[in-house]
């Protein structure tokens, strides 16, 4: 199937509606979010759309899309946008987006909303990481139902700030960021890679090293070392 391509501004949107787009793409079978690089390398494009300015959307046959704005990019699950989605904006306001509101409008409108939200969320997360780089002012928190199965006993039973300081002290800056986002806050490795601007493989290796260091911290604690 030939891809649909349109170059122009927001006043020249193609007639492909969001409902029609869902008929062009497959529903992702893997919940793991692919990287933008992987999609560009091996994905089959079905739609390329200039949105406005330097923003663009590329939709792939496998059900994923890349939203790009300048040098920033994020990967969106097209079928996720079919569900009712509640967005929480920086000013604290929430907005619930229903499928029927966008089903028969240009698919670009719905995907641009999702892409802009993800870019804003990623930037907000990076800012939060920079502001708490030393990891000492606030005890890191997580969502228990989302936390991966990595030393969860440490997180579930240890609430002492001293232990968190000790853990942070044995990690590099990048490892501390991954520890906070992936282990404590429940972001997937793919999402962490997107937020930090690196590959999923780098995050996977980082998680392995974090596991090793945390085990050393817990072993030292059990042996009564200071």
TrEMBL record:
Q: Which GO terms describe its biological process?
A: DNA-templated transcription initiation
The segment(s) forming the RNA polymerase sigma factor 70 region 4 type domain are: 165-214
Q: Which domain of life is it from?
A: Bacteria
InterPro entries attached to this UniProt entry: RNA_pol_sigma-70_dom, RNA_pol_sigma70_r4_t2, RNA_pol_sigma_r3/r4-like, WH-like_DNA-bd_sf
Gene3D superfamilies for this protein: Winged helix-like DNA-binding domain superfamily/Winged helix DNA-binding domain (1.10.10.10)
Q: Which GO terms describe its molecular function?
A: DNA binding; sigma factor activity
Q: Name one Pfam family in it.
A: Sigma70_r4_2
What is the recorded name of this protein? Sigma-70 family RNA polymerase sigma factor
Species name for this entry?
A: Candidatus Caccousia avicola
- Phylogenetic lineage: Bacteria, Bacillati, Bacillota, Clostridia, Eubacteriales
């Amino acid at each position: 199937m030939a891809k649909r391509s349109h170059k122009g501004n927001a006043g020249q949107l193609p007639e492909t509606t969001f409902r029609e787009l869902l008929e062009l793409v497959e529903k992702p079978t893997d919940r793991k979010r692919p990287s933008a690089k992987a999609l560009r390398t091996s994905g089959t494009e079905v739609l390329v759309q200039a949105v406005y300015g330097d923003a663009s959307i590329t939709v792939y046959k496998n059900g994923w899309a890349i939203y790009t704005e300048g040098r920033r990019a994020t990967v969106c699950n097209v079928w996720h946008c079919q569900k009712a989605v509640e967005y929480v904006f920086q000013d604290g306001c929430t907005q619930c987006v229903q499928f029927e509101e966008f089903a028969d409008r240009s698919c670009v409108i719905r995907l641009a909303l999702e892409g802009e939200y993800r870019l804003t969320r990623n930037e907000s997360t990076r800012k939060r990481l920079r502001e708490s780089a030393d990891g000492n002012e606030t005890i890191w928190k997580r969502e228990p139902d989302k936390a991966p199965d990595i030393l969860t006993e440490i997180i579930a039973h240890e609430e002492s700030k001293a232990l968190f300081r000790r853990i942070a002290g044995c990690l590099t800056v990048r490892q501390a960021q991954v520890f906070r986002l992936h282990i404590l806050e429940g972001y997937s490795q793919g999402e962490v890679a997107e937020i930090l601007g690196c590959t999923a493989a780098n995050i996977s290796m980082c998680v392995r090293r974090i596991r090793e260091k945390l085990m050393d911290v817990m072993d030292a604690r059990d042996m009564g070392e200071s």
